[in-house]
Write a structure and sequence with these properties.
The complex is a heterodimer of chains A (111) and B (115). With 111 residues, chain A is mainly beta. In chain A, 0% of the residues lie in helices and 59% in strands. In chain A, strands 2, 4, 5, 9, 10 and 11 form a 6-stranded mixed sheet that branches. A 5-stranded antiparallel sheet of chain A has the order 1-3-8-7-6, with no helix packed on it. Chain A is globular and about 45 Å long. With 115 residues, chain B is mainly beta. Chain B contains no helices and 11 strands. Chain B is globular, with a radius of gyration of 14 Å. Classes of the chains: A mainly beta (111), B mainly beta (115).
Chain lengths: 111, 115
């Protein structure tokens, strides 16, 4: 069974204090790893897709990396508006399979 | 322009009732999904539809039935609602599978409360 574990569950940082969120996964044949951001009362907002180990993607203060067992979401010099829950998800197998999500990391950036 | 929309946003109903949630996407995608997010905020796949064909059903009770009138819509019908059905339901869509993992785009969610 596909499994996704995110750590830490919650993280509180000062504005400008860089850190990383972890996503460990166990899947039979990874087709893609996804990072989403979810604000309270809203749907998940797509951030990145990673397909193979060694791949990296960046967007503003966020950078996602992928190895064969885990992915990291690095946040550089975060701002209060980066506060949200960050969700990691994997897709395995073939066809139009649903995503298997982790429980998320609740990130709070204090001014 | 809303890419994936859901109605209603909030739904409060009594146990035993039958209700429907509607989903529409204007992205031209061929596959649509329903996810359930429980009180612990854990998102779990329920169904996906590709070209009007049900692809997966993750051990969801048969009280839940997805219906797709066309490839832009995937509605969720729930019969005989139970207290445990209270959750946030998200619709999502993605491009047709081409052998790669296609990004899924999510709607804003429907918050269902069963009393």
């Amino acid at each position: 069974e596909d499994q996704v574990t995110q750590s830490p569950e919650a993280l509180r940082l000062q504005e400008g204090e860089s850190s990383s969120l972890n996503c460990s996964y166990t899947v039979s044949g990874l087709r893609g790893l996804f990072w989403y951001r979810q604000d309270p009362g809203k749907g998940p907002e797509f951030l990145f897709t990673l397909y193979s180990a060694g791949e990296e993607k960046e967007k503003e203060r966020l950078k996602a990396t992928l190895t064969k067992k885990e992915s990291f979401l690095h946040i550089t010099a975060p701002k209060p508006e980066d506060s949200a829950t960050y969700l990691c998800a994997v897709q395995a197998g073939g066809g139009a399979d649903g995503l298997t999500f982790g429980k998320g990391t609740h990130l709070i950036i204090q001014p | 322009d809303t890419a994936v929309s859901q109605t209603p946003k909030y739904l409060v109903t009594q146990m035993g009732n039958d209700k429907s949630i509607k989903c529409e996407q204007n992205l031209g995608h061929d596959t649509m999904y329903w996810y359930k997010q429980d009180s612990k905020k854990f998102l779990k796949i329920m169904f996906s539809y590709n070209n009007k064909e049900l692809i997966i059903n993750e051990t969801v009770p048969n009280r839940f039935s997805p219906k797709s009138p066309d490839k832009a819509h995937l509605n969720l019908h729930i019969n005989s609602l139970e207290l445990g059905d209270s959750a946030v339901y998200f619709c999502a869509s993605s491009q047709d599978w081409t052998g790669y993992s296609e990004t899924q785009y999510f709607g804003p969610g429907t918050r269902l409360l069963v009393l």
